[in-house]
Specification:
It is a single chain. With 197 residues, the chain is α/β, with parallel strands linked by helices. The protein has helices at 14-23, 43-49, 60-64, 67-74, 91-96, 119-128, 164-189; strands spanning 3-8, 29-36, 53-56, 79-82, 101-105, 133-140, 150-157. A seven-stranded mixed sheet has the order 3-2-1-4-5-6-7. Helix 1 links the parallel strand 1 and strand 2. The longest helix is centred in the C-terminal third of the chain and has 26 residues, at 164-189. The structure holds glycinamide ribonucleotide. The site of glycinamide ribonucleotide has 17 residues, from helix 1, strand 5, helix 6 and helix 7.
Length: 197
Amino acid sequence: MNIKVAIFASGSGSNAENIVSYFNDKEWISIPFIISNKAEAFVHQRAKAMEIKSFSFCKKEDFENGCVLKFLKERNIDFIVLAGFLLKIPENLIDAFPNKIINIHPALLPKYGGKGMYGDRVHQAAIDAGEMETGISIHLVNEQYDQGRILFQASCPIDKQDAVLDVAKKVHELEYKYFPKVLEEYFKNGVTNKSTC
Ligand code: GAR
């Protein structure tokens, strides 16, 4: 088994780094590069430090006109992992990678998902709504924002005094702990039962 995975990331890339380092010593999987839609994203520096290639496709059209798809297909990519990637995935990619694009969302979907809901905005919305818990959802990507089949969820409390940064920290901890393991299970078996920790 030799599975090739491309990671897409738009920002800091701490999840991308965590995933690369988790799979580093596993011979059955390779992560040849990270793709970003932002040339200035910090994820490129992380990639450099990990000695892994990273590329920028800065125009939305590159994703929509098949340019990114061609790039991935030419490099025999099997799975795409969205680790803080903020563009909507176009149909050409979804059709070419059916059930092979996995996203992480920093909330307990279906709550606080959809267009414009990413990063700290999600945490702010959960705090504003008076939620006592939030968490992570790892799910397959379909044509609708954050609506693909959920593979895994885990939750954490929101305390009364928590600010956005506090919630982000708790959610990131869950992401680092579970995302690589859920990916590993999914890559191996193609399916993981939905569960809540
Ligand atoms: C993560 O918390 C991820 O769940 C979130 O962006 C953050 C990226 O952090 N993704 C979304 O909000 C997608 N809607 P990172 O760049 O440090 O990995």
